[in-house]
Amino acid sequence: MSRVISKVLSPAMQLWLRSQVEQVETLELSIQGSDRQILKGHVSGVMLNSNRAIYQGLHLGEIQLKGENIRINIGQVLRGKPLQLLEAIRVSGAVAITNQNLQASISSALLGEGFKGLLETLLEHQGITNVSHLLESYEINWEGAYLDNSYFILQGNLTHNSETHPLKIKAKLSLIPPQTLQLSEVEIQGIPDLNSHEIKPFSVDLGSDVSINAFDLDADKLVCQGELLIRP
Asked: Percent of the chain scored above 70 by pLDDT?
């Protein structure tokens, strides 16, 4: 390992990565590049292995990532300033999420917004109008989320007009690479406004920042392999 990497870049990058998460159990870095390249602010590659990281309340399992051609503010880093990305980069790798991770994340605001967005999409797909207004009249407390083979199951309680109903959403998940998540065999229980608990299959666009190559869902674990765009 070069002197610049061992003495300057590795500690700075470790500090930057830890600042991006609330907690991480293990964090291992492997940095590629010559001193000459790095002193020009160019890092050839970085490989990251971590376990049990918490990001905005989301609990993640094993993470293996690789980034290439990274531009950083090396001049400021050498003067003791925090490391910053100067350009967006695409990282490739794999992330594992277990049922234990999902349950630990159930109170995450980020996950809650994702669940709300999923429910809104389901209702719109069912042909219900004024979905946003309808959701404002609901109070939803999510209590559990878990994987069961190829199915994703979300449970909670829905309060509407002073009445509380058990809420359950179940869907079979599959991937249409690289950015489309397919939901089929969808069932919703506990929403009075739905005339039917069965909804036709539909797709969710994950956005241009995400590119998933493989999506392995077994009894209690989800492993995603692909690419993610990280912006400065």
From this structure: 97
Quote the DSSP letter at residue 91.
E
Question: φ, ψ for residue 94 (rounded to 5)?
Answer: -140, 145
DSSP letter string over 189-214? ES-TT-S-SEE--EEEE--TTEEEEE
Residue 192 dihedral angles phi and psi, to the nearest 5° = -60, -25
DSSP H or E run through 187:
strand 180-189
Q: What is the pLDDT of residue 24?
A: 94
Separation of CA 182 from chain center: 17
Q: Kindly state the tokens that stand for 12.
A: 């700075």
What span, in angstroms and rounded, lies between the C-alpha atoms of 27 and 7?
17
Give the count of beta carbons closer than 10 Å to the beta carbon of residue 82.
11
**Which two structure tokens, joined as six digits, stand for 192?**
């009075």
The predicted model scores a pTM of 0.84
The rounded distance, in Å, linking the Cα atoms of 60 and 65 is: 13
In this structure, how many other beta carbons lie within 10 angstroms of the beta carbon of residue 24? 17
What is the spatial distance between Cα 86 and Cα 225, in angstroms, rounded to a whole number?
Answer: 25
Query: Cα-Cα-Cα-Cα dihedral of 15, 17, 18, 21, to 10°?
Result: 150
C-alpha triplet 81, 16, 27: angle, nearest 5°: 145
CA–CA separation, 2 and 43 (whole Å):
12
